[in-house]
Amino acid sequence: MASCFFGATAASDPVVMNINGKDVKASEFKYLYNKNRQQQIEQQSFDDYVDMFVQYKLKVDAAEKAGIDTTAQFVKEFSGYRKDLARPYLEDSTALEPYAREAYARLGEEVDVWHIMLPKEVRGLSHAAVLARADSIRQCAVNDEDFAELADKFSYDPGKVVNHGNMGWIAAGLYPYSFEKVAWSLPLNQISEVTETDFGYHIIKVTGRRPYRGEVHVAHILLLTPRDGDEAARAAVKTRIDSIYNAAISGEDFHQLAYAYSEDPGSSRQGGTIKWFPSGRMVREFNEVAFDLPDGAISKPFQTRFGWHIIKKLGSRGLQPYEEKRAEIIAHFKNDERGQAPYTTVLDRVKTKEHYKVEAAGRQDVIDRITKVGQYDQAVAQGLKASSTPVITFAKTKLTQADLVAKLPSPEAGVTADDAEYIVDRAINQLGQEAIADFAMTQLENNNQDFANIVREYRDGLLLFEISNRNVWEKGATDAEGQKQYFETHRADYNWNRPHYKGYLIQVKSDSVCDVIREEVKTIANADTLPQTIRKNHRGFVRVEKLLVAEGENPIIDGTIFHPDGPAPAPSTGFVCYLTTHGRVIDNPEEVEDVKAKLVEDYQKQLETEWVSDMKSKAKVTINRKELDKLSR
User: Fold this and answer.
1) 24 exposed, middle or buried (CB, 10 Å; 0-12, 13-18, 19+)?
2) Amino acid 614: pLDDT
3) Would 74 be classed as within a structural domain?
4) pLDDT reported for residue 9
5) Does residue 6 carry a pLDDT above 50?
6) Is 571 in contact with 490 (CB distance < 8 Å)?
C-alpha cells in the first residue's frame, strides 16, 4: 500500500504523505496529531496514529468520490460552519469604539420625542407605494397638521392609544440606531425624513431637550385592573392597594409586601425589585413617579393602563464614567447594525483592496428589463439566467445577471416595475456581501494556516460522519439480512451462561380485569398481536412488557418462572396482579432479536474492518518518512 518518496517540497510546509493523489502537508498532520494526543487518555504510538490518519483520509476520499461534498445538504451545513469559524478572524473589534463613544455622548441628553410608525409591507401595495404613503403622511406633518391626530389616524405603534404619538422624554440606548441618530440630531419641532428601522418606517418630531436625569432603582407593587369594566371589581382593587400602601408606610417590609401581594410576575419574586433604568424605559406615569420620588420614599398608589402601583425608590445615580458604561453600551449594539461593524469594516477593506464595483450598466439593464415588462416574471428571470452581463466585479471575480437571479424575489411574488430599483439594489447588495465574504474566507484559508486546518477538520469531519453512517452505522443497524447472516456465522459468540425467559409479562390494576385477561390470552395465537390487543381492550388498566431476562434479573420472573415453588413476588407499584404468557425458557439466543444491541455493534465493527481493508487494498499511499519522522519528536 505504502512506499517512500523524497521529492522536492516547500521548506516551510513540506508534504508528508500523498493519499490517492492528494497531498497532506506537515501543518495539517501536525495540527491533528497534537489535537489527538491532547484528547487521548492512553497515548498511542506515532506509527499507530499514522495508520489511523491514513484510514481517516481514505474515508474522506471515499466520501468525495461518492459525491457527498457536492450535495445541497452538505454544502449548506459546511457553509454555515465555515462562516461561524471565520467570523472571529474577520472582525475588527476597534470598529465599535467610535459607535460606543457616540452612544455615550448621547446619554448626556434626553429628548421629548413624537413619532408615527408605519409598516414596511402592506398587502396589495408595492414597496414604492408604501414609501409614497409614508412620505405623504410626513408632508401633512410638515404642513403643520396636528401630529397627535396624524399619529392617532395612521400610526401602527400600539402605544398611540394612550400617548397619541408622544413617546415622552427618552434616554439614549433604548431604541434602534437609525431612530436615535435622527432623534438626537433633529432640530426642535422639525419633522424628520421617513426613517427606516427593522420595526418599520418612522416619522419623528422632537419637541424638547434636557440634561440626562440618570437612572433610578425601584421596587414596586402592582395590582392588575380588571378589563371587563366591572366598577365593583375596580373599586375592590383600589381598596386593596390602599390597604397595602397603609401597611408599607406603617413600617412593614416593602419587599415582603411585594412578594406576597404584587401581581407583576417579573418582579414579585424579587420582592418587587426592578433593575436600574433610565427615563423612557417604563410607561409614562410610572416613569415620572419613579424619577420625581426622593430616594427611600414610598409613593402613593397611582394608576397606569396596567393597574395600580406603589413604588419605593431604592436609589438614583447619574451617568457612569465611560469606562464603566462601555460594556453595557456595546452589548446593546447586538440589536442593530452597529453590532455588525467589526465584520463589515473588514469586508469593506477587502472591497477597497480588491476594487469591488457594482457595474452600473449591468444593474440598469436588469431594472430596464423589469420596467419594460411591467413586473418581474418568469420571462424576465429566464432572460437573466441566460445573461453573462456583469453586475459586480472585484479581484478576478465577475458576478453576472445570472448569479443575481438567486437573490431576486420569486417571479411568482408579483413584484411590479415600481419596485424594480428596490429589489435589484437589495439583491445586488446581498449577492455582493456574500461573495466578498466568501472571497475573504478563501483568502483567510490560503494565508492563515490555523484557520485552514480548523476549516479542513470540520469539512472532513462532516464527510467522515456521512460516509461512515452510510457504510457502517446505518447499514449495520438496518441490514436485517446481513445481521441474520452474521448471527448464524457467529452464533457461538453469543451463548449465555444462564437461562433466559423469553415472553410477555402483563401487570394489571384490577383483580377482576386480571381474571378477564387470563382467559383472553388463551385465545390469542399470534404472540406479536398480543400487546396491541390487550392494551386496546384494557387501556389504562394494564402494562404489557415483552421480556428477555436472565435468572436473577427480574423478581417477578424469578418467582414465577425460575423458582415457582418459592414465595410469590409482589407486583410492581400501582398494580395488584400479574401473569406471564406466550413465553418459555431458552438456554441460548435463538435469533438476532435476542442479542440485537450487541450483535449490531459487532456487525458494525465487521463492516468497518471490511470497508477499511478494501480501501487500503486499492489505495495509492506514499509516505515521506523523513519529513514525517520530524513531527514525532
Assistant:
1) buried
2) 97
3) no
4) 41
5) no
6) no
Residues 525-546 have pLDDT tens digits of 999 999 999 999 999 899 999 9
CA 120 to CA 306: how far, in whole Å?
Answer: 29
428 and 367 in a common domain: yes
Lowest mean pLDDT among 58-62, 260-264, 386-390, 627-631: 627-631
pTM over 0.70: yes
**More confident: 231 or 384:** 384
Give, in order, the Cα–Cα distances in Å from 554 to each of 150, 576, 583, 587.
Answer: 77, 17, 15, 17
Closest listed residue to residue 319, CA positions, set 286, 264, 276, 280: 276
DSSP 580-601: EEEEEEESS--SGGGGHHHHHH
**4 has a pLDDT exceeding 60:** no
Helix (H) / strand (E) element for 497: namely none
* pLDDT beyond 50 at 55: yes
The answer to whether 292 touches 306, Cβ cutoff 8 Å, is no
Tell me, yes or no, whether 226 and 142 share the same domain.
no
Nearest C-alpha neighbor of 453 from the set 13, 11, 7: 13
pLDDT at site 8:
37
Q: Is residue 324 domain-resident?
A: no
Burial of 13 per CB tally in 10 Å (0-12, 13-18, 19+): middle
Q: How many Cα atoms are found within 13 Å in the side-chain-facing hemisphere of 553?
A: 10
Q: Where are the alpha helices (DSSP H) in 406-524?
A: 420-447, 449-468, 474-478, 480-489, 511-520
Q: The domain containing residue 171 runs over which residues?
A: 108-211
220 assigned to some structural domain: yes
CATH code for the domain in which residue 301 is found: 3.10.50.40
- Assigned C-alpha cell, 445: 484559508
Measure the CA–CA gap between 306 and 237, rounded to whole angstroms. 12
The number of distinct structural domains making up the chain is 4
CA–CA distances in Å: residue 314 to residues 262, 276, 289, 476? 17, 10, 13, 66
Residue carrying the nine cell digits 409614497: 132
Is residue 516 situated within a structural domain?
yes
**What value does the mean pLDDT of the chain take?**
93
The backbone torsions φ and ψ at residue 105, rounded to the nearest 5 degrees and listed phi first, read -60, -35
Q: Look at the alpha carbons of 263, 264, 269, 270 in this order and tell me if their dihedral is positive or negative.
A: negative
491 DSSP assignment: G
Task: Say what the pLDDT of residue 229 is.
Answer: 66
Nearest C-alpha neighbor of 623 from the set 9, 36, 45: 9
- Give the span between the Cα atoms of 614 and 299, in whole angstroms: 83
What is the rounded CA–CA span in Å between residue 93 and residue 493? 61
Strands (E), 265-304: 273-278, 302-303
Measured between alpha carbons, how far is residue 260 from residues 237, 267, 286, 314 in Å? 15, 12, 21, 19
233-239 contact pairs (CB < 8 A, 24+): 237/307, 237/308, 238/301, 238/308
Q: Which of helix, strand or coil describes residue 430? A: helix
Q: Of 81, 68, 282, 63, whose CA–CA distance to 171 is shortest?
A: 282
**Residues 224 and 303 occupy one common structural domain:** yes
Residues 128 and 191 in one domain: yes
Whether 569 and 560 have beta carbons less than 8 Å apart is answered as yes
